[in-house]
Amino acid sequence: MNKFLNNNKNKKNGWIKIVTGIVVLILFVVILNLFSYKIRSSVYYVSLPVQKIFSNAGSNTASVLSSVFNYKNLQKENKDLKNENQKLLSQMAYFYDEAEQNQAVKDILACSQEEDFNLVLADITGFDLKEDFALIDKGKDSGILENMAVVSSQKVLFGRVFKVYKNYSQVMLISNKNSILDVKILITKPSQDEAINIENDNSASVFGVVKGKGGFSVFLDLVPTDQKINNGDILTTSALEGIFPKNLLIGKIKEKEKNDLKPFQTASVQPFFDVKKTEKVFVITNYKQEK
Amino acid sequence: MWFKYLLITIAFFILALVQASFFTYFSILGAVPSFIFILFLLILFFYRKDRIFSIFTAIVAGFFLDVFSISIFASNIVSFLIISFASEKLFSNLKEIDEKFSIFHFILFFISFFIFNELFIYLVNYFLGNLSFNNLSWIFLVEIVYNLVFAIIAFYAFKKLQSKK
């Protein structure tokens, strides 16, 4: 009888311990979350100088190793780039000669023209690769706000500022699975007939949506099936969603997938951003939707 | 005594920095080694008799992972605490082979808690509405293998260290 009562008492005590433990844990989590902004800012403030050193060391080591291991690939890449460059040059010549007013050329040129953006230079100091996030060393103190566009010096879009802390910010890369942006597709290889059509019709731009896939990859979606897109077509921001300025470079179509059963075309995209080879980025601080 | 706690805090801090900056350049298909998780499990495995040290390790390791990740703050701490308590229960049930724990046991231990941790963090962020979180994908499998390689190397290093003591 006593043994039975003791067992019951032990069981009861066990449950009380578990419930108390859970309550304490929940309180602990709530308190930590209330102060998470200050905690993250403080730890980051302390660790920033060391993190920059590690980041630079990682970048340098990776580039040395990749040049050693990928010597053959580099040669091939170099050859491919030369070929591509020649193709692009001939295409440019074609555009200039045959269709000076072609909208696609205008758009490509617009990408390289200086626009009066206010830019804040920031160092990439870390990544959360699993979630396609980057950390930059500029925050509220430098005038950074949420949803500001983050680009490279060549105006390649990296993503947008997701969360701002006192002295650093988290950047959601366009490859994050929750990233969606409106894009314009610049038709770079039109046939003779199409080129004439485009010349006569300024509304020939094709629009779509670029979605993140995770793991630094993106894909093109929601392109109407009656619009013709080609492998190698360049994608730029269209500014329709109001977050990114127009004409920022995103990537090029790698392989289009057309399924007659689907109302839209999709395509895999080779993004232009390369987080492993970029140490500095710019945050556009003065872009507004009305621009 | 206190030196052990200080040392482990500094070690986790440095590992967090290395993991978030240096090793991101050595990712394989987007997977990076999680040294914090590896060290945490090694401590649970080799110092399983020291309950306070295990709990302290879970809080410190989880804290540094939370600081440098975009997941909901303290989700890693809670996950690590659960792993710490679960492993304690597991080891108490395996008392009879206490001194014979091998690499085989460690690999099983590592893979099961790695999967638990991934699922737990994902579900917490999903249900608490962290919209920035990526879905689980097959990269998860690459992560397990990538981390396991480092974990096995670290296991033998720890074992050697233990045998010297």
TrEMBL record, chain A:
InterPro entries: Cell/Rod_1, Cell/Rod_MreC_2, MreC, MreC_beta-barrel_core. One of its GO terms (cellular component) is plasma membrane. It holds the Pfam family MreC. Keywords: Cell shape, Membrane, Transmembrane, Transmembrane helix. The chain crosses the membrane at residues 15-35. Signal peptide: none annotated. Residues 132-284 form the Rod shape-determining protein MreC beta-barrel core domain. One of its GO terms (biological process) is regulation of cell shape. It comes from the Bacteria. The keyword Iron does not apply. The keyword Transmembrane helix applies. Belongs to the MreC family. Involved in formation and maintenance of cell shape. This is Cell shape-determining protein MreC.
From TrEMBL, chain B:
It is found in: Cell membrane. The chain crosses the membrane at residues 30-47, 59-83, 103-124, 136-158. Keywords: Cell membrane, Cell shape, Membrane, Transmembrane, Transmembrane helix. InterPro entries: Cell_shape_determining_MreD (IPR007227). One of its GO terms (cellular component) is plasma membrane. It is a multi-pass membrane protein. Its main location: membrane. One of its GO terms (biological process) is regulation of cell shape. NCBIfam families: shape_MreD (TIGR03426). Belongs to the MreD family. This is Rod shape-determining protein MreD. It comes from Candidatus Staskawiczbacteria bacterium RIFOXYD1_FULL_32_13.
